[in-house]
Specification:
Length: 84
């Protein structure tokens, strides 16, 4: 039952999450990574991204070796947004 409750909470949080995506150049993205300190950087094709403060921050100008955090290879990146 705890799993179902946790899943429902995750779905509710996702429905209220922001769908805004903000694109950065390499230098600014790396600076933002220093400030935000995300635990994981996600990677899909040429794009690196992470979520911060209700936004998805991304760039096409970095390499996996630019980050000290783990880089998680994703299967897909969706533009789908939740609505109520």
């Amino acid at each position: 039952m705890a799993v179902a409750g946790g899943t429902a909470a995750a779905v509710a949080a996702t429905q209220h999450a922001s769908s805004y995506r903000v694109k950065f150049r390499r230098k600014e993205f790396l600076r933002l990574v220093e400030i935000a300190k995300p635990k994981i950087i996600y990677h899909r094709r040429r794009m690196h991204f992470f979520a911060f403060d209700g936004f998805v921050m991304y760039t096409f100008e970095c390499e996996n070796s630019d980050f000290s955090q783990p880089v998680l290879e994703t299967i897909e990146f969706s533009n789908y947004t939740w609505s109520e």
